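Quick illustration, no need to memorize.
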Amino acid sequence: MSLAPHDKTMVVITSGTIARALFAVVALLAAYLLWDVILLVLAAIVFASAIEPMTKALVAHRIHRTIAVLFIYMMIVLVLGAVLFFFLPPLIDDISQLTQVFPKLATDPGFLGPFFEKFPHLLETFKQGFSVGEVLPGGADLAAGLGTSVVNTASLLFRGLIGFVLMVVLSFYLSVQEDGIENFLRLVSPGKHESYLVDLWQRSRKKIGLWMQGQLLLGLLIGVFVYLGLSVFGIKYALLLGILAAIFEIIPVFGPIMAAVPGVAVGFTYSLTTGLFILAFYIIIQQFENHLIYPLVVRKIIGIPPLLVILALVVGAEIAGFLGIILAVPLATILVELMSDFEKHKKSLVHPA
């Protein structure tokens, strides 16, 4: 009885396979080494995309594209300058006063007296105030490091400034050119995927622009409402708390809750009644936002799931810090479009037309 020979599988590694593998390794290494540059390029693309609707509106009125982009940049600088000029001094004053609230509670706890009687160590902590080392783990070491490493700190700030200038210059260059972003994508894309990547970006850009406009409008509305409401209640730090409310609006679901915590805490430093009124005020604002403002301004025109936004913000902050937070939602939007196309492709293979 003879045994049948086993089938043998031959693996052939061609020079093309080796070349592609080496190219992938080199590409990953280059991405790692040039990570900061890649982030700046992505930030420039997002910023150029954000002002593209305004640029097209001005060009439609027969204004030259370069002049239109320059006008938009000048308006942004003027608005930021005006905001800093009018709001920065009272904002700094609010922050300075707010840092003194808790130590003052030790000498005049008011209705919180019974609470402090049960927890005397908290009262002693408030009397002594807070230090960086007590509030943040390793804060004292950080403060000492900053004090002894002035050169390193200045170098870090200088690099950040240079990066910001390069991002602005690149975004200006992309904005001035007609279809500048699309041309840039064609330049860096593989030939066979060029058309698809440009189409993917054009679809994603519309959603990114709508999301940015919606979030700016939502943050502005909530910030103004909180500022006006707290001003009516006579809260000293209404401007600071309104700005915090506007900033936290970038975080779906949990943002309004996080913004309410300091406002309610400050309200309770006035009196129990004031604290409860402030708590009720924030609840009303949140309900007003959830059932009226958010559905009209954001959800219906964008369609990005809130959970995806939260995950994107967490991952972006972990990977690239503040710049990662800025790029998180735009990149998540592109990912959603990419997955949608992949799903459509799978269905077309299973159920061909």
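The first helix runs from residue 15 to 33.
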